[in-house]
Design brief:
The protein has 391 residues and is an alpha/beta fold. The protein is built from 17 helices and eleven strands. Strand 6, helix 7 and strand 7 form a beta-alpha-beta unit.
Length: 391
């Protein structure tokens, strides 16, 4: 038996960004035959520590021993779920309730009084930062997408799949958008970086934005591990594990940069029906960020933005963008009315341990502090709006 999970006191809550731990056989089952021997796997090193391998190389970013801790949020909070499996991998044997099994995830939602959850990957957010073979990346993304659609298929709509895209090959990404739309997936996500080193808003990606808009999907920006070349050099080499605190706190910079590039390239004027969701980067910064973008837009120089954008950046945010807040943020209730309360939703990040395990009481705290007119939106209806699912 495990320690009882906290239960939310408010109805109709929707988790805007939960995760699955991909089962170890995902790529064996879902990769196309020509790529099957090259997909991500977990192995043990000479000291018996779990490590991520792919296409013959061992991950340098996901250090040996780290895979077993990727689902440790519950354990940190004292909610230990003992599994009968004995695979030899902590990643599997220590997986918390609902992280690797769809029926368990629905059971967890019932226990926590959560109506639905949008689901994102785990291992996929790691290997893409080291896989320089775009053809293999595209194949693995398609495999993950087939898996997550199947994973969610028998949940009566309570588990909502969000597909993965890589923009390293815009033609392949465009085709995947149409395929996922046919599967009923409401949105796709991209990491903040691309191996081409093109910013998210670059016109090279316009065909993908057009497809997402045409299909009525939502494009989410979700953080991932990133190649070492993405790190700024002002402090020298600071990508090692000894800077873990610094890197974790500042990781949202990548999402902010990707998001801002959409304004630099006028994406919102070109695609006025394109919906953007900003994920797992906190939300307290968005007030300052919009103020700063508006100030640059309206400054005497304008820095070229008035030639690119027909409206202030805050106009486009309120028209086309939504942002997820972390449950432990203390400033959201004051910020939401200023920026636009209908632009915010909450997300757990379960089961990843880089967030605290007490998301249920924290969501309850925020909901209790919000006026009733804003509460239902933050708890659930705003994220449905963000992904075009609200009736």
């Amino acid at each position: 038996m495990m320690k009882p999970l906290p239960r939310l006191d408010f109805p109709d809550a929707i988790d805007g960004d939960g995760h699955v731990l991909e089962p170890l056989d995902v790529w064996d089952r879902y990769l196309e035959p020509g790529f099957r021997s090259r997909g991500p796997i977990l192995t043990h090193d000479e000291q018996g520590r779990e490590q991520l391998e792919m296409d013959g190389w061992v991950s340098k970013l996901l250090k040996a021993g780290m895979p077993g801790g990727l689902g440790a949020m519950d354990r940190v909070g004292g909610h230990v779920y003992e599994r009968e499996s004995n695979t030899g991998f902590h990643y599997v044997d220590d997986a918390p309730l609902g992280a690797m099994d769809a029926k368990e995830r629905v059971q967890r939602l019932d226990m926590e009084n959560i109506a639905r959850v949008f689901l994102y990957p785990t291992l996929t957010l790691f290997w893409l930062a080291e896989c320089e073979d775009e053809e293999l990346t595209q194949a693995c993304a398609r495999a993950y997408n087939r898996f997550i659609v199947d994973f969610c298929s028998d949940s009566d709509g309570r588990l909502i799949p969000v597909g993965q895209l890589s923009l390293g090959d815009p033609d392949a990404a465009e085709k995947e958008v149409y395929r996922l739309a046919d599967q009923g997936v409401p949105g796709v996500f991209v990491p903040p970086f691309q191996w081409t080193r093109k910013p998210l808003g670059d016109p090279a990606h316009d065909r993908v934005f057009a497809a997402v808009e045409e299909c009525g999907l939502t494009l989410a920006i979700h953080p991932s591990l990133e190649p070492k070349w993405t790190a700024p050099g002002r402090f020298g080499e600071y990508t090692s594990g000894k800077y873990g605190f610094f890197l974790n706190v500042t990781s949202a910079d990548a999402v902010r940069h990707a998001f801002t590039s959409l304004f630099q390239y006028g994406v919102f004027d070109k695609f006025p029906r394109l919906r953007i969701a900003i994920l797992e980067s906190g939300a307290g910064w968005i007030g300052y960020w919009l103020d700063r973008m508006d100030a640059v837009y309206e400054s005497p120089q304008g820095w070229g933005t008035r030639q690119i954008l027909s409206e202030k950046p805050s106009f486009y945010f309120r028209r086309q963008c939504w942002i997820s807040g972390d449950p432990d943020e203390k400033t959201l209730t004051g910020l939401m009315p200023v920026v636009g309360a209908d632009r915010f939703f909450w997300a757990s990040d379960f089961p990843h341990p880089d967030h605290a395990p007490d998301y249920i009481p924290e969501v309850g705290r925020i909901a209790g502090e919000l006026p009733e007119s804003m509460r239902a939106g933050f708890l659930g209806s705003n994220v449905l709006d963000a992904f075009g699912l609200k009736d």
